[in-house]
Amino acid sequence: MATAGGDGDGDPTQPFPADLDDNGFPALPSSPAATTTSSSGFAEDFYRSGTDWSSLRARRRPPPEGAPGVKAKGKEGGSLVQSSLFQAWGLERPRREEGAGAGESSLVQRSLFQAWGIERPKREGVGAGDRSLSPSRSGSWSGRKRRRGGPDEAAAAAAMNPRTCPFYKKIPGTPFTVDAFRYGEVEGCSAYFLSHFHHDHYGGLTKKWCHGPIYCSALTARLVKMCLSINSDYICPLELDTEYVIEGVTVTLLEANHCPGAALIHFLLSDGKTYLHTGDFRASRSMQLHPLLQRGRINLLYLDTTYCNPKYKFPPQEDVIDFVVSTARRYLKKQPKTLIVVGAYSIGKENVYLAISQALEVPIYTDASRRRILHSFGWTDLSKRICPCNQSSPLHVLPLGSVNHEKYLGTLNQRFLAVLAFRPTGWTFSEATGKQLDLIKPRSNGSVTIYGVPYSEHSSFTELKDFVMFVRPLKLSDIQCVKIMVREEQSTYFFEC
DNA sequence: GCGATCAGTT
DNA sequence: CACAACTGATCGC
């Protein structure tokens, strides 16, 4: 963006700088002149994106009417999330005492506001203290920060600018990005990874895509080709659990247990550094058995923190499926002419309706576009149960948004006298439903009954914690960039419990 | 008509 | 209400 330098010449792409300082933040060049050429690198992006990362989550921009310095209204403050992962996990920060000369076992972990000695932007922020972690860093950062004298509006604007690829989608030391298609061509990026085929991750991919190869699982690749009409020359399918050397980096995709085709991405750099990007995933015990996670040390973990808060509890998927199946059985026994409806996004939740189909020995009806997608998975157990006639099956799959009381009331005719619907979502959570599925109460309206069931394809808080404690990364980063936690050096544990 | 962006929905 | 992920409306080209 900064330079108009000729694209398309033969220069090999420069990797995003790998230098992270002791606190896990990208190192700035000590001499500005030295690196003017790579002015839009990883570190630049990191700092340019500002420190108020809450803006990345803000739903709307500030109203244009307001004076430039006017603070956001109260509601916006409510979406501000800067808590540390320790807070999120409800753990005490490990004490440093413990004598025994355990060296520097302390964990360094704080919000970026704290890390850079900057007050949270509650008030006009000029005087907000210039202390920062290391004196050497302080100079360059505060110099940058205060170019305009006031709060770093340029940084805030960059963070706001949805066209700028945020640093946390770039893999340092490589020319790779993950799920970064909505920013056009990303300078320095010569390989674009797609973790899975959900809209908020592939957004920006259109048939006009021409910015570079798209690496993803074979199943995701089929969906990209099929649904988005991307030129197949750009699509690079990778088999799971297979090492590929891409631009000198060894890349392996691991099953993410999120939706069909979703993958964790494991990067092994030529210098031995190992990065793991989880994409969206549901962590599990069996995931921990993967050789790449058993053996090697992970230097930096990019974590899906969707439900990184103790309030999010949900049961194992198998338990929810058992509940759904037995509920369906019960309703059918009471009223054999019951239509069973399962809500689902474009892809995901297949195991819910597949289990019903298998247990009740009925086919699965869904509309033509979803049938096409489901068949493309190449899962014979699923494909053989799909039928194209809605009268032939008492089991229908609908978009989640269509599963409500109004819809499908009209389908009540001779064939169906009642409707039993399931909405599998991650945010159906509570103490009660987390432990006792039987306590889930449906919403009923006449002969239509709707159950919200806590079937999540993201990790629960506990699963996330177990996963991180197992992996024990040297550094940890939030892929949604709400919080960051970093750890000093080589200490041998992450959490004390 | 296409795509990017934002608002709204469950 | 939460959240992810989608759907629809609007705007610019």
CATH architect. name of the domain at 167-311 and 461-496 = 4-Layer Sandwich
> Roughly what is the average pLDDT, rounded to an integer?
70
- Major β-sheet annotation: 7 strands, mixed
CATH topology of the domain at 167-311 and 461-496: Metallo-beta-lactamase, Chain A
CATH superfamily of the domain at 167-311 and 461-496: Ribonuclease Z/Hydroxyacylglutathione hydrolase-like
Q: Specify Rg, calculated over alpha carbons.
A: 25 Å
Sheet with the most strands: spatial strand order: 6-7-8-9-10-18-19
- CATH class descriptor name of the domain at 167-311 and 461-496: Alpha Beta
Binned strand content: 15-25%
Structural class label? alpha/beta
InterPro entries: DRMBL (IPR011084), RibonucZ/Hydroxyglut_hydro (IPR036866)
Main location: nucleus
GO cellular component, one term: nucleus
Subcellular location: Nucleus
Polypeptide structure, described:
With 497 residues, this protein is an alpha/beta fold. Among the domains are: 167-311 and 461-496, Ribonuclease Z/Hydroxyacylglutathione hydrolase-like (Metallo-beta-lactamase, Chain A, 4-Layer Sandwich); 317-453, Rossmann fold. The chain contains 16 helices and 19 strands. The chain has helices at residues 42-48, 74-78, 85-88, 112-115, 135-145, 153-160, 199-202, 218-228, 285-288, 291-294, 317-334, 350-360, 368-376, 380-383, 431-435, 461-471; strands at 170-171, 176-178, 191-193, 214-217, 235-238, 244-246, 249-255, 263-268, 274-277, 300-303, 338-344, 364-365, 386-387, 395-399, 418-424, 443-445, 448-453, 475-478, 484-486. The strands form four sheets. A seven-stranded mixed beta sheet has the order 6-7-8-9-10-18-19, with no helix packed on it. Strands 1-2-3-4-5 form a five-stranded mixed beta sheet. A five-stranded mixed beta sheet has the order 14-11-15-17-16, with helices on one face. Strand 7 (249-255) and strand 8 (263-268) form a beta hairpin. Helix 11 crosses helix 12 (350-360). The two termini are 47 Å apart. 39% of the residues are buried. Residues 1-12, 20-25, 31-43, 45-159 and 481-497 have low confidence and may be disordered. It binds a DNA duplex (10 and 13 nucleotides) through loops. Keywords: DNA damage, DNA repair, Nucleus. Residues 1-81, 123-157 are annotated as: Disordered. Residues 385-475 form the DNA repair metallo-beta-lactamase domain. Belongs to the DNA repair metallo-beta-lactamase (DRMBL) family. It is found in: Nucleus.
